[in-house]
Every structure is written in C-alpha cells, then in structure tokens.
C-alpha cells in the first residue's frame, strides 16, 4: 500500500450522488483534514433515485447534483464533476471508459477510490448494477487506458491529456475487504454529508444510528477497540 505521505491527490469515481458518502465520506474527510486534494466524479445524476415521485427525472437530477455538492463541502471537497449518464442503465462501455480516462488524466491522482465490480451476496445493497458497471469501467480506465498513450488517442491529440499511471485503487462495497479506515473522529462529518442528501435520507430519522451497526462491525473486523467506527475497502496495487 501507498504510505499516507505518498497520497496527495485522490479521485473518487461513483455511480450516483450519495454513493461516496455511504461508502467513504469518513475516509474522505480524514484525507482532506490532512491536506489531500479529493475530486469527485459522479457518473449519473441519480435521476432514478429518491422517494418523491412528484419530482420528475429532470428535477430529481438537478436536486441530487446540488445535494452532492453540499455533501462534498461537509467533508472538505469542492471539486465535483458529473458525467451525466442516465441513472439505472449504466454499462461498462468503451464510452464510459473513455470518459473516466479523461477525468483521470485531467486530475492525475495518486489513488482512485471506486466501487467494486464484484457482487457481494452477503450484503446486496452495495452491488447495484450501476455500481458494478462503474467499478468495472473505472478499473479498466486505470489499467490499461489512462496510462496507455495509444488508448483513446483523441484525448492526447485533441485535448492534450497525456497518459497517467494511477498507483493504487480502493474498492468499496465488495465481498473481500482487506483494509479498514478508523473514521471515529470524522463520523459526524459523514453524518452531515449523508443528511445533505435529503431526497435519499430524509426518511431516516436517526442517520447516525442507522450507520453505527455496520461501521462498528467493520471496526470489529479490523480489530479496533470497542466503540470505534470504520469504513472498509479492498486495496488493489495498480502500479
């Protein structure tokens, strides 16, 4: 794994607004607290989500973009980019790989955090088809696309985006977590970020209480002391 001092810039690639906040807002807050620059790339605007069907798809998309920007501010992130793909029908196409490759070459991160392409049968919610498609496309964008100057040559020839090698990827929501981040000290920021997604979490009266059981279970798996909270990832060496 990269040492903390080697991680200066992180790109987070997720399918929907709020995905990063459920999976990793505490970790993101810990990064930004120590000066790491974090950029969000959200593939869809989440137009198929939410509980208020009086809001049409277009209205929901605008609402959720705004919610994600507010949630990002709660954990110290100011750069939020949306690719505008339709919610619920994402596939790991060459076009999506190219669009993620473009952002990787623009941001030039040391580490990419994205969603696992693998289904978790023990906990199905993180294995939404959009999540798995985005994770697959993001991994392909990391390797081989972003580092290969002959992949999507228009990115170099027309946009001036030179090849870039991402050294490490963290996957969230998969079945084989092997790395845990203690987020006890940034838990309140995670809660604030999730509360910003009012269209998705407004029906949850106690967001903190909703989160604690599985974050506590992660901490127990990590061998942390009782009362600690943790987020879980699978680390992939891509250098």
Automatic annotation (TrEMBL):
GO terms for molecular function: hydrolase activity, acting on carbon-nitrogen (but not peptide) bonds, in linear amides. Pfam families: PIG-L. One of its GO terms (biological process) is glycoside metabolic process. Keywords: Zinc. It comes from the Bacteria. InterPro entries: GlcNAc_PI_deacetylase-related (IPR003737), LmbE-like_dom_sf (IPR024078). The keyword Zinc applies. PANTHER family: LMBE FAMILY PROTEIN, N-ACETYLGLUCOSAMINYL-PHOSPHATIDYLINOSITOL DE-N-ACETYLASE-RELATED. This is PIG-L family deacetylase. It comes from Bailinhaonella thermotolerans. The lineage of its organism: Bacteria, Bacillati, Actinomycetota, Actinomycetes, Streptosporangiales.
């Amino acid at each position: 794994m990269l040492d903390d001092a080697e991680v200066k810039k992180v790109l987070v690639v997720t399918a929907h607004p709020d995905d990063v906040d459920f999976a990793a807002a505490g970790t993101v807050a810990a990064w930004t607290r120590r000066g790491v620059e974090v950029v969000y790339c959200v593939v869809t605007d989440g137009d198929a989500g939410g509980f208020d069907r009086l809001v049409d798809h277009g209205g929901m998309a605008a609402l959720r973009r705004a919610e994600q920007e507010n949630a990002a501010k709660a954990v110290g992130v100011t750069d939020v980019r949306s690719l505008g793909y339709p919610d619920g029908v994402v596939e790991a196409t060459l076009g999506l790989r190219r669009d993620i490759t473009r952002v990787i070459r623009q941001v030039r991160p040391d580490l990419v955090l994205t969603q696992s392409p693998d289904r978790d049968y023990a906990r199905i919610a993180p294995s939404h088809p959009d999540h798995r498609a985005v994770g697959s496309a993001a991994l392909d964008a990391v390797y081989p696309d972003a580092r290969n100057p002959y992949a999507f040559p228009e990115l170099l020839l027309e946009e001036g985006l030179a090849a870039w090698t991402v050294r490490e990827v963290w996957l969230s929501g998969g079945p084989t977590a092997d790395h845990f981040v203690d987020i006890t000290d940034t838990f309140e920021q995670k809660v604030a970020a999730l509360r910003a997604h009012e269209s998705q979490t407004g029906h949850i009266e106690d967001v903190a209480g909703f989160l604690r059981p599985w974050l506590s279970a992660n901490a127990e798996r990590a061998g942390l002391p009782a009362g600690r909270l943790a987020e879980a990832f699978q680390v992939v060496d891509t250098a």
